[in-house]
Write a structure and sequence with these properties.
alpha+beta, D-amino Acid Aminotransferase, Chain A, domain 1, OB fold (Dihydrolipoamide Acetyltransferase, E2P), extended, DNA replication, DNA repair, ATP binding
Length: about 500
């Protein structure tokens, strides 16, 4: 057991009220979180991972925070390798795994200083080293964040991590580390209730069924009232989830609301014309352990099957250049009208994004390559070198690159990233492009149909602001009622005065 492993930095979920400009971006990894204490790897629960000696031989004797990674879409394969007991470990399986490092917990310096230390102390060029530092890039704004998120989702990745510049390593869940992920929402049929293990007499989870017959449990998202009186068996609920497992079950399902406006027959009928995400056939990666491309801003080299030396293939190259090329080609052929909100547009629903185009981030000016000193020793990888750290480039010379795209790329620092096994309770979106909760701070009537939400301009505000506005409305209502009462009182008083004056006139006349 290792108690320090349970005190790693954990992430909160990003929402659009946090401006990501200037934060460090990296890909959210779908690997196994592993804490290196200088001798062995441990899980977040402090359990020992029985890794072969060659897999950890080149690591420094100081604590590191990272993930053991197998490839995009190979999370379950990675888990099956790493969590084997000592007598069942297959050493050859680890030759195609990589320990992706994103932080140094005991360094004590700011984030940027910790990253530079990692780059200088992890021998990434060494063939005996099975670790590398996760790449990072400074975010230029929400538009760029959305574009990278869409690119990662398309490539089969999980999301993006945002790290606050100049932040320290905290041994807890912190707002200096934010995750940006895609979620989907769909309907399911309630077929049963599972009792809570800790709350006596209350519901712990809803047993649900998808239109394709797959069954799963929804335990997150239920408040205390809903646990006392859960949705009835046979009712339809809306839930959100991150993705599907290899066997087709929703991962991290969270209850959103009861759909009293829909029957299960309505859901089944709608699924015939527009297949929900949950019943679409998932592309399962090959069972053969192999690389599934690299991560964003990083190059994870493969290894020669015979010699075991690191080699950079087309599958291992940084996908940023390809993503930017795809983005630019789409932009030139785009005939959609420009959104009136431009880069500040807050809309995230698919219909709006299909109907209008939005400006992408401003490209950086082309950098002019400076001639390298002839006194530097040549890099052993030559033009195929995958290293991007400033220390490596200052130490070794490299042949001039003819690809214009490589000259335009800014130098990423390389970093940390963070993945968690459990799903946080923070809000997300029904949209398939961005993690944002359109329902945050609002109360909805379950009898209302929210299918028209995408056709309305949605304004999201923090919950505290909604409460403040509600209080102001109540104050104005009270004042209006007071003025109305004053008006009625004044009117009655004036009417009485007029009657008295009329009576006086009649007496004088008589």
């Amino acid at each position: 057991m290792c108690s320090e492993a349970a005190k790693v930095l954990l992430a909160e979920t990003w929402t659009e009220d946090v401006d990501p400009t200037g934060w460090w971006m990296s890909e959210k990894l779908d690997g196994v979180r592993a804490y290196w204490n200088g001798k062995n790897f441990y899980s977040r629960q402090g359990n020992l991972f029985h890794t072969p000696d060659f897999f950890k031989a080149a690591l420094p004797k100081v604590p590191l925070d990272g993930e053991i990674w197998c490839g995009r879409g190979l999370f379950q394969k990675c888990v099956s390798i790493v969590k084997k007991q000592a007598n069942k470990v297959v050493p050859d399986d680890y030759k195609l795994l990589t320990y992706l490092i994103f932080d140094a917990p005991t360094h004590g310096g700011k984030y940027e200083d910790r990253v530079k230390w990692l780059q200088a102390n992890i021998p990434q060029d060494d063939d005996k080293c099975y670790a590398t530092v996760v790449g990072i890039k400074k975010c230029e704004g929400i538009a760029q964040l959305k574009q990278y998120l869409a690119d990662i989702n398309k490539a089969g990745g999980e999301g993006i991590m945002l790290r606050k510049p100049g932040s320290l390593y905290e041994h807890k869940r912190s707002t200096t580390l934010l995750k940006v992920k895609t979620f989907y929402d769909e309907e399911a049929l309630v077929i049963g209730h599972k009792p809570s293990k800790s709350l006596i007499g209350m519901t712990g989870a809803l047993e649900c069924e998808l239109p394709n017959g797959k069954r799963f449990d929804v335990g997150s998202g239920l408040n205390m009232d809903q646990r006392r009186k859960p949705p009835k068996i046979g009712s339809v609920i809306t839930f959100k989830f991150q993705e599907l497992s290899n066997n087709g079950h929703p991962r991290f399902p969270t209850f959103l609301r009861v759909r009293t406006d829909l029957s299960w027959n309505d859901v089944l009928e709608a699924a015939k014309t527009k297949k929900p995400m949950s019943i679409q056939q998932k592309v399962i990666p090959s069972a053969k352990l192999s690389k599934q491309h690299s991560v964003l801003f990083s190059v994870i080299p493969s290894r020669d099957a015979n010699s075991g030396k690191k080699i950079v293939t087309s599958d291992d190259e940084d996908e940023e250049a390809a993503a930017s090329s795809s983005s630019s080609s789409t932009k030139t052929s785009d005939t959609r009208p420009m959104c009136k909100f431009g880069a500040k547009c807050y809309r995230t629903n698919a219909d709006h994004l299909k109907q209008f185009q939005h400006p992408s981030s401003t490209p950086k000016p082309t950098k002019t390559a400076e001639p390298e000193s002839t006194t530097k020793p040549p890099c052993t990888f030559g033009a195929k070198c995958y290293r991007t750290s400033s220390i490596h480039l200052a130490t070794y010379s490299h042949p001039a690159k003819t690809d214009a795209k490589e000259a335009d790329e800014e130098e990423p620092l390389d970093t940390r990233e963070l993945i968690e096994a459990e799903e946080p309770v923070s809000p997300t979106t029904i949209d398939s492009l961005l993690v944002k909760d359109k329902n945050k701070g609002l109360t909805f009537d379950d009898d209302m149909d929210d299918d028209n939400d995408d056709n309305q301009n949605m304004i999201t505000r923090p919950k505290a602001e909604w409460i403040n506005l509600e209080n102001k409305v109540k104050e104005q209502s009270k004042r209006l009622a007071y003025l109305e009462e004053m008006f009625k009182t004044t009117k009655r008083s004036n009417s009485t005065t007029d009657d008295n004056q009329e009576s006086t006139k009649r007496v004088k006349t008589e």
